[in-house]
Structures are given as C-alpha cells and as structure tokens.
Amino acid sequence: TPRIGVLALQGDVREHLAALDSAGAEAITVRRAAELESVDGIVIPGGESTTMSHLLGVFGLYEPLRARLADGLPAYGSCAGMIMLASNILDTRPDARHLDALDITVRRNAFGRQVESFETDLEIAGVTDEVPMRAVFIRAPWVEKVGDGVEVLAKVPDGPAAGRVVAVRQGQVLATSFHPEVTGDRRVHAYFVDMVRHRRHPAP
Ligand code: GLN
Q1: Where does L-glutamine bind (predicted)?
Q2: Residue 203: pLDDT band by 50, 70, 90 thresholds?
C-alpha cells in the first residue's frame, strides 16, 4: 500500500485524507520534515497559496519539500496546490514562494473576473471514460501556458472560460484547478495513487 502524505499546514487536508484513503492509499498528514521523508507521494491541498507559502517557511518544510520534488517524489496539487507546484505564477504576491515542480504558468483567481465559483462536467484524459467528472472550482487558477513535456488532461468545455486548461501532468506531477476531494468521485485520487504505485525510479 503506498503511503501518501497530505501537506497539512492549511487548506482542505481532511477531504484529501479521506479521498486518498478510499482510493486505497495509506494517508498521513505532513507537517514536519521527518513525516515528509516517510511518504511515497505528496498531495498539496486547496486553500490559499500565499498563506501556504508563508507556512512552508515557518515549518521549515520549503527546502525539504523542494528537494524531494526535485528528486522525483510523485505529487498532486489541487487548486492552491497547483499554484504551489507551478514554475511561474501570475497575480500573486511578490514574496510568495512556490515549488517549481511543474513547468506551467498559472494565473491565480483567474475565473474570478467572471464568476468566483462554479461547477462543470469535465472529461479528463486518462481519468474519466464515458462518464465525465463533476468539477468544483473555488476561486480557482487556470493554466495559461504549458512547457514542453506537460500533458494537458482537461479543458473547460463551454461557457465564458471555454478552452481554459484546468488539469495537467508532467512526469510524476499532477495538478488540477478544481477540487475532486470535495465530491464523492475518487477517480482523480485513484489515478494519483496509481501514479505513486507505478513510479519509475530513475536509474542510479
Ligand atoms: N485562490 C486561492 C489561491 O490563490 C486558491 C483557492 C483554492 O484553493 N480553492 O491560493
């Protein structure tokens, strides 16, 4: 059973723990470096990215987490978690730090100009088959640019934000603008648990 940590400084930690648990992982909270050392994968929850960035520093987790990610630790970030994993962030505070594990440019609170929160049915490559997934967006970012090697897994199908990229994967790193942890649908978490199970270790 893969042991997957949920970064537990701020945000919807409990929801991710429950979702991982029902997707077949052993889920633990991560607040210190020793806990981070013990996990096979990490989830960065939704919440508020500038607060999370600040707390990563306070808890002394910023460097250790960056190091494990650089070493290929599988990671999944939802919403604020996507922002934390990104390499470039638009509309954030100048002092906010991020983890630079995913070669994307994200815009914070991007949908907010039209509507703060909304739901839509999404098709997600590799995750949904015939049945789309209900996706909940709460002051969500979108992906404005993807680097080489980043796979686009989902786009908003219609409405004012049609075509916006909201799920991506690059190697061992997965991110969604929306919050699958708040619905009963476990398919994104099951997909991530699978990524952790099949992690390819680089040759020594
Ligand atoms: N708007 C938040 C941020 O910028 C993210 C919102 C969320 O995680 N639901 O961090």
Answers
A1: 47-49, 108, 138-139
A2: low
78 CA closest ligand 1 atom index: 8
Note the pLDDT of residue 160. Answer: 85
For the CA of 109, the closest atom of ligand 1 is 1
DSSP category for residue 138: E
Give Dmax (Cα) for the chain: 49
Residues tagged active-site: 79, 179, 181
Sign of CA dihedral 25, 15, 172, 69: negative
Does residue 202 form part of some domain?
Answer: no
Q: Is residue 203 part of a domain?
A: no
3-state secondary structure of 4: strand
Overall number of domains in the chain: 1
CA of 203 to the centre of ligand 1 (A): 37
CA 178/CA 181 separation, integer angstroms: 9
Q: Is the CB of 3 under 6 A from ligand 1?
A: no
Does the CB atom of residue 48 touch ligand 1 within 6 A? yes
Answering whether pTM is above 0.80, one says yes
Q: What is the CATH classification number for the domain harbouring 130?
A: 3.40.50.880
